[in-house]
Design goal:
Helix content is 67%, strand content 3%. The protein contains 18 helices and 2 strands. The chain starts with 5 loop residues before the first helix and ends in a 7-residue tail after the last helix.
């Protein structure tokens, strides 16, 4: 069996300048693209948004008195909608990592101990995610229908006003944010403190108690969070499993992110105690939650489809029906959603080796006299993982934009700019957090078990 010295187990990630430059470069490029996108959008003709914009604004917002006012409103909504979209994307990834930590501690799982510093580092992004989402508190009336002026004239929205009102919305979400971020910070603090203890068992037990309480709160609050920030964008719609649907996508993207960061660290010479079995188990989790996401998607869609209740059906009509006045231009997103998030990952990750292999290359040779060839990624977890990460963004786009924006603005400079900016911030936050602690929890009771973890011969 492999043996690792204390020096190897206490190594810390070194945040080299090249990685900082990548993070800052992504932020810089993202901001430039975002500003360019806003500029070009402001210079385009009001009619460029087409009839869909008018239909969307008239059905979801109060129609502006002039084309100029309507167009300016569309630009502002697009900025706010993308702020919400990008904030949700990286926040949900982070919340998935926190869930991974607490559920495995409550379940006394040993295999994940060797990699747990990765999800702990991801959890360090939570305060940033809280700030980006909290900024939207000041603009609720711009993108949430229930917060619009005159929304209470709608009997259905008025009936929900005890829950859907700005004051209660802000209060309960600040409570959620405080408990989530504070609890994650305290659990990480105890985990790092455990490294300096001669006996890590007492702290291990305390972490278990806190994790159990956190998990109960998480299960309730995260479903309400999904309803508040996504489902309430279309308050006429009903779904009893929407929170679980969002949670499934959360876990897929979070597990893929954990896989990528762990592979990056191992390739850079860190965390050599992580073996193929660890990658296999993360891959199995990602595969399993992909299937779970597909199951919940079908369950939600079929229940709404065969009940044929207008208040429920309009959610899907707006996303896939072409020709109806409710249609807003999202058909391509709708029809590719299941393919990207379920069908392709399901087929590609079905085999055992697909979860263990980072990239499977295939060589092609072109006869141009030089005899040189080139390789393309034919399989492995990383290529399909990139698709899965995009799939989560694609899914959130389809959930957020019809309610927040109305018509489909497409994927342009504004969308790419927001994503790259947040990606750079996320990378910097996570890599910086990795420098703050040993990459292995050296006094964790299950570390030895995890280092020798195996899923059997291939």
């Amino acid at each position: 069996m492999a043996h690792f010295t204390p020096e190897q187990l206490t190594q810390r990630f070194v945040f080299e300048n090249r990685y900082r430059n990548i993070a800052f470069g992504l932020i810089g490029i993202g901001l430039v693209l975002l500003l360019a996108g806003i500029f070009f959008a402001s210079q385009s003709e009001p009619s460029s948004t087409g009839g869909h914009a008018v239909a969307a604004e008239s059905s979801i917002h109060t129609v502006a008195d002039t084309h100029g006012e309507e167009h300016a409103k569309g630009i502002g909504n697009r900025i706010l909608s993308n702020l919400l979209l990008s904030s949700l994307y990286f926040f949900t990834i982070t919340m998935g990592a926190v869930f991974f930590l607490v559920i495995h501690r409550v379940g006394n799982a040993g295999w994940q101990t060797a990699i747990r510093r990765v999800p702990e580092a991801i959890s360090s992004y939570l305060p940033i995610g809280v700030i980006s989402l909290s900024a939207i508190f000041f603009f609720l009336n711009h993108i949430f229908e229930w917060a619009h002026h005159g929304a209470l004239d709608d009997p259905l929205i008025a009936a929900k006003s005890a829950y859907l009102n700005e004051t209660f919305f802000i209060i309960r979400n600040l409570i959620f944010f405080g408990v989530w971020a504070g609890g994650a910070w305290y659990l990480r603090k105890l985990s790092i403190q455990q490294d300096g203890e001669s006996d890590g068992v007492p702290l291990f037990r305390r972490i278990g108690t806190i994790s159990a309480i956190y998990l109960i709160f998480y299960g309730i609050s995260y479903c309400l969070f999904a309803v508040d920030w996504i489902k309430s964008l279309e308050p006429h719609w009903f779904s009893t499993i929407f929170g679980i649907y969002v949670f499934a996508g959360t876990m897929v993207s979070s597990l893929v992110t954990m896989y990528f960061i762990t592979a990056f660290l191992k390739k850079q010479g860190y965390m050599q105690w992580v073996n193929d079995a660890h990658f296999h188990d993360i891959g199995k989790y990602a595969f399993g939650f992909t299937v779970f996401w597909g199951y919940i998607w079908v369950a939600q869609y079929l229940l709404i489809w065969y009940s044929n209740i207008p208040e429920e059906g309009i959610y899907y009509v707006k996303r896939y029906r072409v020709g109806d006045h409710e249609y807003l231009g999202y058909a391509m997103f709708f029809y590719t959603n299941v393919i990207i998030n379920f069908l392709l990952p399901f087929v590609a990750l079905m085999t055992r080796n697909a979860k263990r292999t980072w990239v499977a290359w295939s060589s092609f040779r072109i006869n141009l006299g030089s005899g040189e060839g080139f390789r393309i990624p034919l399989g492995g977890f990383i290529p399909i993982g990139i698709l899965m990460l995009y799939g989560h963004w694609h899914d959130l786009y389809l959930m957020v934009m019809p309610g927040a924006m109305g018509y489909n603005p497409g994927i342009g400079l504004v969308e790419v700019g927001f994503f790259l900016t947040f990606l750079g911030i996320f990378i910097y936050a996570v890599l910086n957090a990795l420098t703050k602690a040993n990459l292995a929890p050296v006094n964790h009771p299950y570390l030895e078990e995890s280092i020798h973890h195996t899923t059997g011969p291939v």
